[in-house]
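Bench log. Compound arrived from synthesis this morning; before running ITC I wanted a structural hypothesis for how iron/sulfur cluster sits in the protein. Inputs:
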Amino acid sequence: HKECTQGNMNTPNLNLGHPCFSTKGHGNTGRIHLAVAPGCNISCNYCVRKFDCANESRPGVTSKVQTVEEALQTVMKAKSSSIGSKLTVVGIAGPGEPLANSATFETLRGVKRNFPEMILCLSSNGLLLPEKMDELVDIGVSHVTVTLNTLDEQVGAKIYSYVRWEGKTLIGPDAARVLINNQLEGIELASKAGMTVKVNTVLIPNINDQLLYSLGLEIKKRGAHIHNIMPLIPQGKLAHIKAPTKELLTNSRSNIGGILPQMQHCQQCRADAIGLV
Ligand code: SF4
Ligand code: SF4
């Protein structure tokens, strides 16, 4: 159990078979992203809705939304391609919020039925994670990514314009409070259910860069396994903010790298990406 600069190695149960959940192990396995989830239930100020969910994907690209049938065809084709045997993961990451779209669940069930050996992965803003947990467990989802940017509802009010919750549109700290509580509860439930849990945090200079240590401690307490601090790509309502410098990003990662392993290689891939990572 020794620390290294690539993120520490104190999490022996990391599933290295999944390219996105290892601090460095990529190149040999890959994933198929299925863009079946266009709708979203919150509004992140760094999001431009006509593009993919910025929580997991590279902003500025738009994935073509597929039907469930098209998505299953995509898996079939990818699996029979030359790199098919290396594609071990099917992920749903957008272009909106996977859990807010029923096609996500139909697609995951279809993949499980037809390709039972594939690892099922999902990224989420976390709002519906507690509510949908039983269904995800039933389907056999084993890897979940939650984008959690702050634990502070005042900071959250600067990051999220609104949260749609139980038929209402919440704004300000009220919106952030519901979202943050659900994110933390969802992380805890997923971890207790035996899933491998990654947390993405978008580093937004002068907004959420001060409180990351306590965020790291809390997500670890809730059972997260790996953390990915991602640089803000300034756009949408946060277009006026400067992207974090390399130095701020490196410092933030190394400041809290002793809490959970930090990912170093995230490429912010798009919601319909297929290939080795
Ligand atoms: Fe955009 Fe994703 Fe945030 Fe929804 S969760 S507003 S799609 S960045
Ligand atoms: Fe990797 Fe995220 Fe896609 Fe899962 S959803 S395969 S973690 S990029």
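What the model suggests: The two ends are 26 Å apart (CA to CA). The mean pLDDT is 88.
ITC booked for Thursday regardless.
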